[in-house]
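ok posting inputs for the S-adenosylmethionine job
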Amino acid sequence: MKRRPEPELMDTQEQALAYAQADFNESNTLFIDLLRRLDPGPLDGARVLDLGCGPADISIRFLRAWPKASCDALDGSQPMLDLARAALDALPGVAKRCRLIRDQIPSAALERGGYDLIISNSLLHHLHDPQVLWRTLIETGKPGALVLIMDLMRPASAGWVEALVATYADGEPKVLRDDFRNSLFAAFEPAEVAEQLAAAGLDGLEVGVVSDRHLAVSGRLPG
Ligand SMILES: C[S@@+](CC[C@H](N)C(=O)[O-])C[C@H]1O[C@@H](n2cnc3c(N)ncnc32)[C@H](O)[C@@H]1O
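and the output
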């Protein structure tokens, strides 16, 4: 099935709020589990970058699990960052280790070669040019930095898209069901991601299927 891109930023308040209020516990728990399986160690003093952080649920889960790391969390959407700010304000111990950055990748605001770990969940499928993400990893990661990128993967047919929407978004507000459907159409297939990585010179990273609707890219940047 052909890819159908969607707008990059989720920048209406309605869309951001519906997203922040949705229950992503299963997939966000999976993300942290995948990170643990990469055996990143204690990450004491580590600088972490969360690209396309949205309401910052993944950044917060990460900072709770690794209490001596700090995180720069970037998103181009102000409504998303307002929700991230509110979530962080309720958690002062975590908030002091998290810096929110409003910008759209490719971003000049990010330090070059500054990060020990780069994480991102559900950003890749938003990008009209996916190479922007892979270039951002190369530019902002330290040599040998650990990477975990998780995203939706595009199903083989429109019927399979509808089956996933019915399974995972039934009963959710229309704006969220529409977002999920559009995201599945906009997502990449694992083989396409492998081609993107090869073109970027990142074929040392692995692409794997990690659920019925998610793929993950993981490994270390060239050292
Ligand atoms: C589906 S949300 C994922 C949010 C969060 N990572 C999570 O897992 O809950 C995708 C986010 O990426 C942001 N985004 C899309 N394109 C972007 C870009 N080029 N630069 C920065 N943020 C972007 C959107 O505004 C949105 O908040």
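notes: The longest helix spans residues 25-37. The chain has nine helices and seven strands.
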